[in-house]
Amino acid sequence: MTRQDSGGDRRDTAKVLYITYDGLTDPLGQSQVLPYLLGLAALGHRITILSCEKAAAFDNDGEAIRRVCAAGGIEWAPLRYHKHPPVVSSAYDQAMLTRTAARLHRQRRFDFAHCRSYIPAATGLHLKRRYGVPLLFDMRGFWPEEKSEGGSWNLRNPVFRLVYRHFKRLESRLLSEADAIVSLTEAGKTELLRRPELRGEPRRIEVIPCCVEVDHFMLAGPESRGAARYALGIADDASVLAYLGSLGGNYMLGEILDFFRVYRTRHPGARFLFITRESPQAIEDRAANLGLDPRDLVIRAAQRDEVPRLLAAADLGIAFKQPSFSALGCSPTKLGEMLAVGLPIVANAGVGDVAQTLEQTRAGVVVGGFDEDKYRQALNEVERSSVQPDDRRQAAIDCFDVKLGIGRYDAIYRRLLAPVGNQGACR
Predict the structure, then answer these.
(1) 16: which strand partners?
(2) Domains along the chain with CATH numbers
(3) Cis omega before residue 85 (within 30°)?
């Protein structure tokens, strides 16, 4: 399971080009890219990251991220991300990724390309076809459907209809030609295996959920709970529901607020804590339209290091996302983060492996539908549960610890280094 380098020495660690359209200076890059790659570099893999960075984030955090990469033995090649005009800017970024990746490969001679989602994977496909570089397609879910179902791509618009069809054709080629594929969920893997491009090859697909640095999210206790509530202006005896992460698109803000109405009826004086970078005004306006008092909401944007401290204020977490085809491939990062601090969670079925995880670990409750009776039933289950915060944190460790993800990626990397005739698990 080794490969010989140009000097004839056998090795079992890889020289990898990791391509991501998400910037390392973005919150997502800091939570869902760097921790894995730093762990893989610590195992001996030599990693070069090619990313697209948003100007403001790069200007603020670029030097700090560069130091982190250098300390971890990672080479970083950042490009600028372009947002406008739509479609054309993405095509330009795609061209720059491909041009830069080809130059880096000519200089470094990578063992394979690890590509995060579709736009980077198009570059990886170019490297495979032009230079014979093996391709790891880190799929991250069903992106074309996610964009169309969430409303970002209105398929009644002929431009977005063409974009959608382009990426569906690309998806087909990637599934056919990738040497290894990562799905975020077992539900997504099951759906992929129905595709003719996979030819019933389950060994080519590995499931790696969105993992969490569990050690970063310490178990909440009375002291951290009191400190968080004091900082947020929440009474010690108030009940607190919490939502973490982005909103809009397929996230069900209306239903989440409806659940809070039922929660507040059961717990007078309850507060709803939103830890999100979304517009507070938009959330408050939606709450007011539903008959809720916006003063019952506490909305905070938080840096990554602040999130665990703020979550300590909560009694219950919530994660509602519209069930849909694209949701089959979705692994909400918030699930592992809330469990890691010991929070019980109320979530809905039809989103990746969420329902199965909560039912098997008993770390949360799956609502049976989106109406007041089902919400009351879910709250009854939460109140009857004997599962303790330590148990929920253990569920996060067992299911979502970043060490799990690093181990699975390491296994893929080592398989991709095998001689072509021995790559049984990859192709």
Answers:
(1) 47, 112
(2) 3-211+402-422 (3.40.50.2000), 214-400 (3.40.50.2000)
(3) yes
